[in-house]
Design a protein that fits this description.
The protein is of the alpha+beta class and 126 residues long. The chain has four helices and four strands, in the order H-H-E-E-E-H-E-H. The relative contact order is 0.19.
């Protein structure tokens, strides 16, 4: 999501010139889980303080970014970022998470890159 090229390939995204970020599209039932809880999980499952890196994966496509569907989602993300930074989460390092209001198209990865972690028992080495 978030790049300049329509329907990019994985190789194009990995080149770092398209501006896309690898993303997960989430559909949820707000009667079963709150958006606030999803945001908490987002920050619990990745490091929002490392620019262009998640675990062993490096590159602009691995930046910390949240694409929002409403002003309320933007507000909740910013509220939680502020609270976590104020409490010194992640060793007090500043957050680099981009919070982007709606707009970008979600492009599905090619079949060979779907469920990558399960298929390869680990992260990609690119």
């Amino acid at each position: 999501m978030g790049g300049t090229l329509d329907n990019p390939t994985y190789e194009q995204v990995c080149s770092g010139v398209t501006g896309h970020a690898e993303a997960v599209e989430i559909h949820y039932d707000s009667s079963r889980v709150s958006y606030s809880r999803l945001v908490s999980l987002f920050f619990a499952l990745h490091d929002p303080t490392t620019p262009d890196r998640q675990g062993a994966n490096q590159g602009t496509q691995y930046r910390s970014v949240a694409f929002c569907d409403s002003p309320e989602e933007v507000q909740e993300l910013n509220r939680q970022i502020c609270a976590l930074e104020n409490e010194g989460a992640f060793g007090g390092k500043p957050f680099v998470t981009q919070v982007i209001d709606s707009g970008p198209t979600f492009w599905h990865a090619e079949d060979y890159h779907q469920d990558y972690y399960q298929k390869h028992r680990g992260f990609c080495s690119r």
